[in-house]
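$ fold --in a.seq
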Amino acid sequence: MSTDTGTDPGAGTEAAGEPHPPAGAFAVAELDLKPALEAVLMVVDEPATEEHLAKVLRRPRRAIAVALRELSDEYTRQGRGFDLRLVAGGWRYYTRPEYADAVEGFVLDGRQARLTQAALETLAVVAYRQPVSRSRVSAVRGVNCDGVMRTLLQRGLIEEAGTEPETGAILYRTTNYFLERMGLRGLDELPELAPFLPEADAVEAESQEGVPSFDVDDSGDSQT
């Protein structure tokens, strides 16, 4: 006579609190690695790290790193219109510079989406002098940059980086999004332009953090 003990074969695992693999995890691990990487990288919103890709695709990081570099080399050899680059600590697809005119014509379609000269100059000062306050950026440029700084903040190209101990002024630095847009792995890849920027201390800075700022936008600057 059989005896029903009411034991569930899976009960021991649940009772032990062992996590179950997510649905489809084993199937993902069996996928061809390079096509799987291509599929994932097609939908990323920001550069994906090797660690994250290894976790998602359930592969060793070493295998992920090798496959990514092989894909990048293959695209270059084939002369594809896009490239796979390591930027800002992660991997993402980018269009190649030689096809920039075609891409710009399609994306903009007559609309002006670029930063103005004033915004580009201000962004350059922040990039090379960071962390830096608004008043020091204005001192280097010789014009009030409050409005342009707000624009760069809104676009996610710069961010707050604490305060200056001596004055309490808010400091600013560039973001990972800045690196991504510039196609840089890190700030150490910035061109050697810093020596050509004047030191803020050597410029008579009339614009201070406590002085009311002009209400300007990124279409230009207000003369101090």
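$ fold --in b.seq
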Amino acid sequence: MSNVIQTNKVVSLAYTLRLANGEVVDYSEAGEPLEYLHGASNIIPGLEAELSGLKSGDKKEVVVKPADGYGEHNPELIEVMDIAELPKGMPLQVGMEVDFSDEDENVDTAVVKAISGSQITFDFNHPLAGETLHFSVEVIDVRDATAEEIAHGHPHSLGGEFEDEFDEEYDDDEDYEYDDDEEDDEDEFEDDDDDSYRKN
């Protein structure tokens, strides 16, 4: 049973993620698989549940509804800001991703949805909120997690800080405030052109 996916196993996973219209929005090949700690909520619950019991070499097609993925699109997470509230001279374009820090130094990402005069519309929903997700997965490897990995809640074999491929959540009860206490305001904004959806 050592190569069967269950709690406290580190899983190496190749996958392709498509939307209902067939558009590929993310993937990881067998040569550079995603690694996650099963049972530690590293990945969305709908996918993790479907992987339980699989073993090395298994392949599976998994469909994840929004409730078990990134949730439904929440209109309360749409915010309109005046450009005067933002650092001067920041180049904003529709479709770009912008990072905001709240007073506790938590970082949340929003997408610029519209620019109308001095009004900027930001969407703090996850980019895949409301989408039904279609995964084609292949289990590359399954191993026992180390005690340190279990304690930290993620695998260490990738080196550096673990990058979660899927699970990105926004708290709709939290007030998002731009932190203008930094010496360089421009450091708070990042234009991310990567099509994958990862969490630091």
